[in-house]
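Hey, can you fold this one?
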Amino acid sequence: MKKLFTLAIAMAFAATSFAQIQNSSLETWQTKAGVGITGPYTYEIPQNWNLGFISELLAGFGIKPSIGKSTTANTGSFSLKLSSTADTIGADAMAAFSLGPNNRPQAFTGHFQTSGVVTDPNDYGQAIVFMTKWNGTKTDTIGYGMTDLDNAPNGFKPFTANIQYSNNLTPDSAIVYFLYLPEEGNTHVLIDDLAFITTVGIKENITFPELTFYPNPVSGNQKATLKFIAPKAEKATLTIHDVVGKAVKTIPLHTLLAGANTVEIATDELKNGLYTATLQSASGSQTFRFVKR
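Sure. Predicted structure:
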């Protein structure tokens, strides 16, 4: 199965390489311990992985994480299992790692299988990736990708999360994050065989060079700063969409300067979450992602 998938990707992308994710086949595991409401407990999690934000929070209240090792796998012996039980709302898991030099992945891929037929989008899992870079004082998020883990009851199914970058910088690290919070209980999703796809030799079409949005993530009532180079003096609009694609804010930027532009963006009315913003003018458009927390 893995060979067929790799061959299909190679045929679709003539100049493609795969970046290594630590423990990408999820074959190496570790046992961790905690103390729950009814006493001590243990759980298994892939080596070099950690609980996600929600599972960590629930563990703090004495609820055992619904994360474990499954012997049903796409290849190899094991896969990651995220469950929703009668006692928990679901689970999440994440891993952070360094990337090699000159490595700018275009997509995050893997395989998943659901415990049954899933028809309600509220029961989907999500695969999310953040591409990050150290700027000398802190780590910036410069790229983001997400896709649903929807319906795959009869066997493992490939997923692909295309990565969109906010600028032309190359990341030096990445965070992969899996979230499973279905409305239906007593279900699970299995995850296996993770990889990055890096397409080489293709020049990106960037309408607004040196576009940056910071801070990212942006917090509370904090204003964000958008900087970019405009090809000429013209009117532009910034449109912000939430994670389901709904336009939640449109900002007319009036007439841009030919050259460097700096715009302050108010984010106080935005709820916490992931957003896509598109800067549009007659010359073209450019899209970037940011997080409000």
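DSSP finds two helices and 21 strands in the chain. Let me know if you want another pass with a different chain boundary.
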